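Q: Can someone sanity-check these two? First one:
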Amino acid sequence: MLTIFIVITATFFIMHIVPGGPFTGEKAVSESVQAAMEAKYGLDKPLIVQYGTYLHDLIFNFDLGPSLKQKGREVTEIIADGFAVSAKLGLVAAAWGCLVGIILGCIAAIKRNTFVDRLIMVISTAFISMPSFIVGSLLLMIFACNLGWFPANGADSGGMFLPVLTLGLVPMANITRLTRSSMLEVLGQGYIRTAKAKGIASNKILFSHALKNAIIPDITYFGPLIASIVTGSLVVEQIFAVPGIGRAFVQSIVNRDYTVVMGTTIVLACLVVIMNLLSDILYKAVDPRIELK
């Protein structure tokens, strides 16, 4: 709760310190009309009073307020509409990225210092180094514009394939490297050598003994990954015109829609805290030696 409170406080004051406002860019709006609009939403009050009112409505009424730019729409409605799309996009991307990353990491560890290992490491390093907007733009240009295999608009039928592929590449590359490093360390442990000496099949050693301990670093990465990939796919959603929460967040920043910015930031903070908590719980499930306090 303290983390979320700090995020709320920092975001609120930084957002209001930035020059401009939600109504300064309105065309053909007189100063009197602008003043009336600010009074309607309480923006004419001292900043500390606005902060106290926002906290009161949030804590006691769970009210994120109305959008300042989208007339007649509540922030919860905007977030709910975008979150449904972003959650589907992010969860599928995270799932395939983690699955493929673990498989490639295991292969690279087993084939250590071979051509296969080097090829996997080169590919994973390349995807880590390339920003998502470059990868997304390349995929869009090749598979949507040139080949025409997939629609360029993420809202169309079949249009989610390229955004899902783009979002999953970086997690896949990171998990590949994490799994390889952890797997190499585990394969050098004494209990693995003992299992081999007992004549246990290699596949059983790999999946029953080594992999279970090797994926612990992946769990550390997977928790915050879910939160960030669900609500943090800002650039990717913009490139592919996906109507998700990331796109709504970018538009709210450009439009100085304070309430939407605050609402999406709170959702992201809550997701990060919850996923970190779930990661700690999963530690115990994977490794009984770990104690939760």
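And here is the second, same format, sequence then tokens:
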Amino acid sequence: MQFLYFLQQAIIWLITIYYVYQLIISLFSFVKIKEKPYIINKNHKFLIILPAHNEESVIVNLINSIKEQDYPKELYDIHVIADNCSDQTEKVSKEAGAKVFVRKEENPDKQTKGAALQVFLQKILSEPKMDYDAFCVFDADNIVDKNFLKAMNKHLCQGEEVVQGYRDIKNPTDSWISAGYAIFYWTMNRFYHLARYNAGLSPLINGTGFMVKMDTIRESGWQTKTLTEDIEFSLKTIISGKKLGWAKDAICYDEQPISFKPSWSQRSRWTIGHIQCLTEYSVPLAKAANDKKTLMNFDGLLYMFGSIPMFIITILLLLINAVVYLRKEMTTSVFIINVLRYVLPTLFFPILTAILIMMIDKRPIKKMWKGLLMYPCFLGSWLLINFKCLFVQDTKWEKIEHNRNINIEDVKTKSNKIKKENSMKNNKTKQKEKSVK
């Protein structure tokens, strides 16, 4: 029984130290850093890649938003990967002004975004006249802010080779599911990516809206094999000793599922991808942390252990408490307190964090109140997904339907309306303060 006590205390200390570390790093999101100096001052040429599988209903809005970039038109080309499409994706993409690469793949294990990028980039790199400095990748359901390429070009000029942009949501109030995604990404943007960038650590590629310098993959190509090619490429970059960049002004808007079933499927795929990356890259990350002795490599290792391993450790702690309680060596009140001590903060503390982020970033909290109330359910369902994926790992890719016909002008109108409302509120507050004085 003494062994269980020591194990319990060791786990408590491990969890405490882990979350204290995360809290300390997250505080760097409030630190203002100086702009990096330019290493080179030029307008780089970009290759824009849009992997798409049956996306005829949304891809034109994406192409149009990219065509409206505040960047020299001759310095970027738009290429759509029509990946095993059976609809009019190829046709509407060409009509919208994009070049189209048609990919047919019979092997279901290779019908993934990572595999599509690998084939397409291999083709581009093999072309003698290839003169692109960098490429950007967007999901077909995205729309892109007009300053995206300008912001990415600045980071290229500052010497950064792999940069994640700001991933925003174009349908945050459609349902409690899409609201859950929005809150999750807003939290990641500030307390993970921005915080680490300010602290001199490494953010991560986050699925879409990212930029990679061509020289980074010129020799090896795009080589990924897991279901989360973004995380995998990030980890490989960190292992090599390179930091990823973060461009908060390079904004793209992503469409998220509005119903539970596709969300469950998508998040299950992400969790399985994390497990694959954990299996494949934990040892190389640990070796890199030992060899290079940098906090960046150690932080990358902690990211991987902060998902499934930390989930397993927390379950183990709860089981130990249950065993001690069943042996009648713990009172009912103490047992309940011990369980709630870990369950409540996990589910409800993120609501307070979300409200704080929405206040700082001046987002409309009233319109998100349902999403905030349901956020514990969103996170709780993710815990169930993690538990399921420990035993059942279905790697079959299932398409997430995208049909929200929102263009960049719709987003601009909504954004301007919110800014106007916030400005009016600030003016009213100032007037009240003057009247009190």
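A (reply): Looked at the second one. The mean pLDDT is 89. Residues 260-292 form the longest helix (33 residues).
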